[in-house]
Amino acid sequence: xxxxxxxxxxxxxxxxxxxxxxxxxxxxxxxxxxxxxxxxxxxxxxxxxxxxxxxxxxxxxxxxxxxxxxxxxxxxxxxxxxxxxxxxxxxxxxxxxxxxxxxxxxxxxxxxxxxxxxxxxxxxxxxxxxxxxxxxxxxxxxxxxxxxxxxxxxxxxxxxxxxxxxxxxxxxxxxxxxxxxxxxxxxxxxxxxxxxxxxxxxxxxxxxxxxxxxxxxxxxxxxxxxxxxxxxxxxxxxxxxxxxxxxxxxxxxxxxxxxxxxxxxxxxxxxxxxxxxxxxxxxxxxxxxxxxxxxxxxxxxxxxxxxxxxxxxxxxxxxxxxxxxxxxxxxxxxxxxxxxxxxxxxxxxxxxxxxxxxxxxxxxxxxxxxxxxxxxxxxxxxxxxxxxxxxxxxxxxxxxxxxxxxxxxxxxxxxxxxxxxxxxxxxxxxxxxxxxxxxxxxxxxxxxxxxxxxxxxxxxxxxxxxxxxxxxxxxxxxxxxxxxxxxxxxxxxxxxxxxxxxxxxxxxxxxxxxxxxxxxxxxxxxxxxxxxxxxxxxxxxxxxxxxxxxxxxxxxxxxxxxxxxxxxxxxxxxx
Length: 575
Ligand SMILES: Nc1ncnc2c1ncn2[C@@H]1O[C@H](COP(=O)(O)OP(=O)(O)OP(=O)(O)O)[C@@H](O)[C@H]1O
Description:
By secondary structure, this protein is of the alpha/beta class. It has helices at residues 12-46, 49-97, 101-107, 109-151, 157-200, 202-207, 211-263, 269-311, 372-377, 402-407, 423-428, 436-445, 449-454, 472-484, 502-515, 528-531, 551-557, 559-568, 571-574; strands at 332-339, 349-356, 361-366, 387-392, 395-396, 409-412, 421-422, 462-463, 490-494, 520-524, 536-541, 544-549.
């Protein structure tokens, strides 16, 4: 928690201002009972109305100043806390954006969202509390004690009995409450997880008639959280009546013993009234301190989770000395590349070597899970190789800046991802300053013009969240248009064409051929018809290259390829 407080640095002056305002507010509050005792002991006793009015006005002034300080401090502390929340959110977001896919997998997308929202809000709330109480509570407690002793040292002996009792109970309740608060955060996480799965997987849940099962899962997580919340709230609820009881008993004791002392002429009535108020201030400050003890561990769990995100060093970083590629062409080379996912026993890719040059189409084919997507994900450096090297234009991708490397690439992922916005905006995602003409042309090559024209607002049509208002194949075509608008040197299509019907697939590839005539094209494909015309087909098996060559060559030399082909095409098509 305290580690996160370093992010308060931009607000140093505001923090200082809040602390000072609260300091003066506490002093003003501490002075009020003394003024009141003066009115009683001097003004009333002597019947001096002028004195009463004068000190009364002073009291009003102090009360107004105290209220003003408090309002200003509350305003500033709320501003600081929301500012801190905003900064932390953007910090976490930009840190997460720099993660490689490994780090994403390690923490999990759902948890990253909770950490950016819920956890930061928890910290934000505690910062407000801490700012408000950190200064007020100790000053009120210590200042109150000093003032009370100065009013009547003997009567202050009551505190020797009351304060340890109060502190003991607060400690006891806090010690029992804190683990429950920690458990609550974990249970809240669980509830978020179930909720997220229930919402994102709603189609599957309905299709498999698992609605009841999901409801049960949710209500279990919900009840679990509620039970703990009730338990902890019950515990906290006992604190208040107990404090009130102690306060009221103290009041009785003060009035009782104070009355006796007044009777004996050892104390004045005004002093006794002031003493009572100081006693209240001391006890309230103890309640405030106990609240802090409760809130801090509660936010601690959140702070740990935020720090975990901020401290995680991205595995993929730009090298110290960045090399520029000399001639901009788009040559991709794999040299003895071996790669494994963290925690996996076997490498998913072993000894991969090939090169794909400009003007060539290289297709990668193979069974599911053989490592095709993994292989092409190494080119934009989504992952780093274990051994060997991936080179673009003769430079190892690890030696290039990620930005310049990715600027060369038009990437179409296996699962098309669109963003909220219009169709044109989604295509322009590939090239911010693309003209309308370029957007249209890219859409035409991607065979998207027709369905875009059919939409009510054409290129201005708004995409629903995640592109839910277009079909899978349409989404895929927009993703292709987005890559094409870049006029990249290297195009990577990860199983992009299988969501398209055969006719559209053929038309798209024909149009693509003209567009990518000088580019390096790498495509993962499932269909033999898609790869048949490629200059080079890489056949993969068990993370290795089984064979490489043209369709005709592979038919002669590669058993695996022949099997794939015969499972898909009729004999006459093969020849
Ligand atoms: N993020 C990951 N973490 C761990 N293992 C992974 C990860 N992604 C893929 N794998 C594993 O690596 C292997 C290759 O996956 P990859 O996605 O590259 O296969 P693919 O050939 O593209 O398959 P498909 O044709 O089904 O898309 C699979 O066995 C998979 O279980």
